[in-house]
Amino acid sequence: ILVTWTKGFKCSSVEGKDVVSMLRKSIKKRGDFDIDIVAVVNDTVGTMMTCGYDDHNCEVGLIVGTGTNACYMEEMRHIDLVEGDEGRMCINMEWGAFGDDGVLNDIRTEFDREIDMGSLNPGKQLFEKMISGMYMGELVRLILVKMAKEGLLFGGKLTPDLLTTGHFETRYVSAIEKEKEGLQKAHEILTKLGLEPSHEDCVATHRICQIVSTRSANLCGATLAAVLRRIKENKGVDRLRSTVGVDGSVYKKHPHFARRLHKTVRKLLPDCEIRFVRSEDGSGKGAAMVTAVAYRLAAQHKARQKILEALKLSHEQLLEVKQRMRIEMEKGLGKETHAEATVKMLPTYVCSTPDGTEKGDFLALDLGGTNFRVLLVRVRNGMRRGVEMHNKIYSIPVEIMQGTGEELFDHIVHCISDFLEYMGMKGVSLPLGFTFSFPCQQNNLDEGILLKWTKGFKATGCEGEDVVNLLKEAIHRREEFDLDVVAVVNDTVGTMMTCGYEDPYCEVGLIVGTGSNACYMEEMRNVELVEGEEGRMCVNMEWGAFGDNGCLDDIRTEFDLAVDELSLNPGKQRFEKMISGMYLGEIVRNILMDFTKRGLLFRGRISERLKTRGIFETKFLSQIESDCLALLQVRSILQHLGLESTCDDSIIVKEVCTVVARRAAQLCGAGMAAVVDKIRENRGLDFLKVTVGVDGTLYKLHPHFSTIMRETVKQLSPKCEVTFLQSEDGSGKGAALITAVACRIREAGQ
């Protein structure tokens, strides 16, 4: 938008308007060609860009010609007029107006004031009037006139030419200051102005030209030094290496101006190495450079979008995933098809959620990873209904995780003993619930056959055994106390039960953390692996294995294949690998690698760190996608990964994280939609109101995961009203509640 015309232009109705749209309009009016206008550039910026093409250190542009101006690369965080605090932006200083507020009054002379009074814009561009080519010759003329009037030159004689504004041109100053023929030139020029100069007059004129042009170069150098000092402070370096791109007739044609300017800058900045590069055709070539950069960015953007397209799922694709999940669920439930089903739909023998009448003291064990917890859970009913918990965390050393089964269970019992002593309950026999978060085949609530160890456990003699028996045997070996092991529970079921205690509508459990899984209350008549038709039973879906038979191959990308291939269990848990926390960071890393190899990121430079598997932790995704601080966080995370990133790089990384996490949340939502619709159809309802108990770090910590997942379920299952309830301590408390429910039912039976 043109602020004001200068340099003699005065066309009406252009000021205050966007010159690009005016140019576009004129092109359109002609109608015989079409041009895409990509950039509007000030000539100073053009100069910087032109020189920057040849010298990548160039971050300042300077023009000293008819007018003067400068531009430089400023940190975004200091530019309050523009949103965002990442990266840098070129600032057009418009420094000709320096001093218009009076700060230079102490160094302005009577000659400067006289020039200003006689100019087209009095009081404006005062700095420019002291240094630029438009006024340099005029300054010399005014000094000559004053000296002649005082009888110090030309024998006190004045001529009409000498008294005419603009008759002593700036190119005369350059000519007079030339080494060899300077004095001869002075004689010629003064004679042309109608004077009869003596040798002394010529020497004095030469000296005046020298003083005026030196002041100009010094002032220019001083202000440039201020700009360079700022860049140095912004970068926080001890020694700045930088390049200034320069254009303009005074700088290029005056015999000594450039040298004097350089000298001043070096004197004022002894701790900087500054190089000056003359721009050849700055303004034209520079505009083309800015355009070329903009075009490169646009082309790269297009290439990246094309790659990310494969990770963006349409509504139709998500519906398809939902339908396929439903087919796999049916296979897992069916007696005939169960053996080859990938989604195993394991019966849990949990047949009822809490009704609020449960009471008593229960012990719970929670084994699901490297830490192991023992809990005492007091369940109260009636007026003081609630759950009170005490727990202690014990670690499981690697040598025990990978030793023998006896050692592992002896260690667990040792921890229980320590806990009972700590609680002062050594002699009490309590009902116990065991959260055991590994794939188990249950034949009863208190019997769980370990199918296979996961999560780094390798204890021998456990696979194919009943973990409840292994625990009971270890208790008997210790001969200190007796516990009634009532239930063995998967963490997903525990989560459902914990939320079920708060909300009677809760009939689904979901975990989205390191891994992912779901469970829900299925009609007994559909659970063909268990005898009986009446009532319901919670089914542990083990849905992470959805897709292991190839049914998701059409939406898996090259990046999913790469992550799967290098994982500990290639070809297994394919659905989990697209949605859970353990793998999302790895998918992102693979995409960033691909972008970098194609030169679309990090200037095509791959660091050794980026090649390392598992360095891009999933918690980074949560941090990168949070709030407005994001770009700064992205930058520090990338630095931590040994990646030097620009502002644009940070934005791209953030976009990749968003796309990957969004897909994960949508896939999770599609799976959940299949579950709630099955419950609705099981019950022959037009509309179902149901609550899902959720746990897991990804769901809890990621800023957008839960929102996107909820939206997806809503879109894919419009006939269900689904509420998601975050579980507080699902696995431990849940095991105790299942035990409490089992005890309640057992007592009622007795």
Automatic annotation (TrEMBL):
Keywords: Acetylation, Allosteric enzyme, ATP-binding, Cytoplasm, Glycolysis, Kinase, Membrane, Mitochondrion, Mitochondrion outer membrane, Nucleotide-binding, Repeat, Transferase. It holds the Pfam family Hexokinase_1. One of its GO terms (biological process) is glycolytic process. Its main location: cytoplasm. It is found in: Cytoplasm, Cytosol; Mitochondrion outer membrane. Pathway: Carbohydrate metabolism; hexose metabolism; Carbohydrate degradation; glycolysis; D-glyceraldehyde 3-phosphate and glycerone phosphate from D-glucose: step 1/4. The keyword Nucleotide-binding applies. It is an enzyme of class 2 (transferase). GO terms for cellular component: cytosol; mitochondrial outer membrane. Residues 60-293, 508-741 form the Hexokinase C-terminal domain. CDD domains: ASKHA_NBD_HK2_meta_rpt2. One of its GO terms (molecular function) is glucokinase activity. It comes from the Eukaryota. Its EC number is 2.7.1.1. Belongs to the hexokinase family. Monomer. Interacts with TIGAR; the interaction increases hexokinase activity in a hypoxia- and HIF1A-dependent manner. PANTHER family: HEXOKINASE, HEXOKINASE-2. Catalyzes the phosphorylation of hexose, such as D-glucose and D-fructose, to hexose 6-phosphate (D-glucose 6-phosphate and D-fructose 6-phosphate, respectively). Mediates the initial step of glycolysis by catalyzing phosphorylation of D-glucose to D-glucose 6-phosphate. Plays a key role in maintaining the integrity of the outer mitochondrial membrane by preventing the release of apoptogenic molecules from the intermembrane space and subsequent apoptosis. This is Hexokinase-2.
